[in-house]
Amino acid sequence: MRFKGLDLNLVVALDALLEARSVSRAAERLHLSQPALSAALARLRVYFADDLLVPLGRTMVPTPLAEELQPLARQLMEDATVFIGTSNVFDPTTSRRRFRIGTSDYITTVLLSPALRAMQSCAPHIQIDVYPTGPGIQDKLDRGEVDLVIGPEIYLPTGASAELLFEERHVVIGWNGNPALNQPLTLEAFLDLGQVAVRIGMDRALSFAEDHMRRFADQRRIEVTTTQFTSAPMMLIGTSRVSVLQSRLARTFVEQLPLAMQELPFEMPALKEFVQFNRTRQGDTGIRWLMDLLRRLSSAG
């Protein structure tokens, strides 16, 4: 389709090229061949009478005109997304849509896994891609490369479009052969035990629980750290170590493995898990259906 002489498909290519600053990476993002995207760039250069992107080493540098065009192209893409999402009728029973969700292995286990079981009957053709959370996940959400991000309230960017999914408490979990877990734990007993702590991502950022246990930093015996919540329980079996985990996740593993759990011997606020979405998707009936499904399942947990 052309608008004032410009093939609007070229706007999609321009947005990807200016974001990736690489023909090969932009082609991969758009699922096009590299020659096809090179041809699109050539047509854009002719239309705007400007090089737009100039090779410099292994990357491409935008020209001054390209820098002016980038926010305009991005806004046009976002407005088009709103237009398409608002006019779209979503039927989960027949849809073959692929949803992309950024979240932790904890949410994947306690919420997305039950959601997939529910979809088996009510939305059998829906597909789900799960992305790990981390420094780049917010950019992916802003660019529309993921549909939803699910995570704790404390990690929400200021002004984010988000809704509360559920609240969660934390418990102590350990091997059921650990005599320390045969009775309610005191704070002294908890601090005397070796512990497995969860630190998030390559930068080893503190999890919600670890952040709230910083007041015990000089007293705790952290003997093992891991970047995944779901790996901690396996590290406890046959040892005297314990870990502080979300109660839904702890319950899941206690039902399957020789593990036991106890209440925390100190106060910790509830963990509030939010689902975040791009503001351009508010009229997307498919996104709303998925969020409603996740909310129903989380309230049942």
From TrEMBL:
HTH lysR-type domain span: 6-63
The entry's keywords: DNA-binding, Transcription, Transcription regulation
Transmembrane segments: none
Domain of life: Bacteria
Annotated family: Belongs to the LysR transcriptional regulatory family.
Source organism: Sphingomonas glaciei
Name of the featured protein: LysR family transcriptional regulator
PANTHER family per the UniProt record, alphabetical: HTH-TYPE TRANSCRIPTIONAL REGULATOR LEUO, HTH-TYPE TRANSCRIPTIONAL REGULATOR LEUO-RELATED
PROSITE patterns: HTH_LYSR (PS50931)
A Pfam family this chain is assigned to: HTH_1
